[in-house]
Structures are given as structure tokens and as C-alpha cells.
Backbone:
């Protein structure tokens, strides 16, 4: 049986899986899409990775996004953002990665 997905994003090789797990007991793994089977309610992807293979069901309403370069003009009132930050010794947060949705899109992570 295929597993269900949370939002798909293009993955950055420099980020380790434990930095981005979205839920307890979840992990992210780099994989190659080997096969796609389309159905009315979504697609089932066969993913191959270094330790094996999994079938993942992607519902038709799953957002699929790719990051593109932006600039300060993307930061507008009402824009949805995701900011990865690191806590500094003085308690302040320093943003390391900024994601801003365009056209009402919420950045998944």
C-alpha cells in the first residue's frame, strides 16, 4: 500500500533530514522518481533511494512547489512566510532561510 504525503518540495542536498522532519516519527529522504501512475484522485509515485524503494500516494490537491530567487518586493503585508532561524547566545533569532509565498501560496517549509 502506498503511503500518503505532506506537501512536496524540491530538496536541497545541503540540508540533512533531521533538520526538516515535519512531524514526530517522520523523516525526509532524497529519492528518484522511477515510475508515476496517475489515477482520478492523484498519483502513485515509485521512489527509489539508496536503501530501497517506496510507493507514495500524492493526492491531486497536494501543492507542488519549486523555489525561485526573490527580492525585498516579495515581502508585502499579508504575504505568508516561513523563516528558518537559529537562536543566538543572547536569545535573539537570526534568520538563515526565508521563504515567501507569491500569489497567496503558503510556503510549505
Residues:
Amino acid at each position: 500500500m502506498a503511503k500518503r504525503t505532506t506537501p512536496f518540495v524540491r530538496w536541497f542536498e545541503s540540508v540533512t533530514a533531521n533538520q526538516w522532519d515535519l512531524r514526530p516519527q517522520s523523516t525526509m529522504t532524497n529519492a528518484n522518481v522511477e515510475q508515476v501512475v496517475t489515477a482520478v484522485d492523484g498519483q502513485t509515485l515509485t521512489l527509489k533511494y539508496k536503501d530501497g524503494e517506496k510507493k507514495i500516494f500524492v493526492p491531486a490537491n497536494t501543492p507542488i512547489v519549486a523555489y525561485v530567487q526573490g527580492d525585498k518586493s516579495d515581502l508585502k503585508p499579508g504575504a505568508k512566510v516561513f523563516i528558518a532561524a537559529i537562536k543566538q547566545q543572547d536569545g535573539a533569532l537570526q534568520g538563515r532561510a526565508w521563504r515567501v509565498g507569491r500569489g497567496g501560496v503558503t510556503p510549505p517549509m
